Amino acid sequence: MVLTLATLACSGLGGVAHADTVAQAKQQAAQIAAEVAKLQPQVDQALADYDTALNSVGQSVSTSVAARRAYEALQAQAAAANATHDARTVALYESGGSIALYAAVLETGDPNNLPQVPMLTGIVARDAAVAATAERVARAAKLRSEAADNQVSTQLTNADAVTQRLNELQSVLDQQQALLDEASAKAKQLEALRQAAEAVAAARAAAAQASAEAASSVTPYPIPPTYRALYQAAASTCPGLSWTVLAAIGQVETHHGSGTMVSSAGALGPMQFLPATFVRYAVDGDHDGKADIMNPADAIFTAANYLCANGGGTGDAGLYNAVWHYNHADWYVQLVLSLAAKIT
Known about the structure:
Layout: H1 2-10, H2 22-94, H3 97-108, H4 116-157, H5 159-187, H6 191-216, H7 225-235, H8 243-254, H9 275-281, H10 296-309, H11 316-326, H12 330-342
Helix pairs in contact: 2-4, 2-5, 2-6, 5-6, 6-12, 7-8, 7-10, 8-12, 10-11
């Protein structure tokens, strides 16, 4: 793709600036418009690839959240079933167990009490069966949740591929725009150029829309109390920075420390810092005398320091710039800011 565009840029079509007459300029402008039209299928394919990659990241994060919530609910049901079984077992054996119940029947001489013994033990056995079933269902849900988490980790590990697709799209669009600008210098009045310019603008808008839609589809993940407290405390060190931005980065990067702590690019810890960047902005968040990239307190306070150093507390524009510095991709910024707005 790059070679084709470079060849185009160096061809005779680049000579519009040297046209001697308006007629020549119009002819060359028409040729450029035709070349722009030829590039459109590449733009459409790059946009489709970019949209697919973004949706894959967003859907994986949402699926992981749903799977984790389902597992937590089933685990609670299993715990309740076990508690019921334990309580009834304790009650039965505190009364002396099955033998004591039979003895009590013999002592009273009342045969009407005899059916109660197998009924009570049957209830306990049924409770055990219910608890075992609930445990099996919860374990299956846990496996699905872990699989969903692994999928998120894979998608985030491959985030560079998303950026690459976006760069490919932007490269084609920029080349188209350069051709249009060159032609427009001599022939702005041509309808063909106007239509081509509109097509480029529409492609750019579609790319922006794809990013916004993918970001808006992500839902917040439950934040562990320890991490919530660290996000809030760290944000207070940077006036103007919302703690929800730190929480959103924490979710996207490692699910608040529950996901992969080492990326293929060499980023480490719950906030996924490159070691060199961490050393430069390191903060001893838990005041133990050292700054550890794998320590949640140190990592979160360092993230707040890094965002603040890049304008994270200076308003919307500064925040956008700060998050972009955290991961140099506009789709990442939109994902984090959209998620931050939903966290409460």
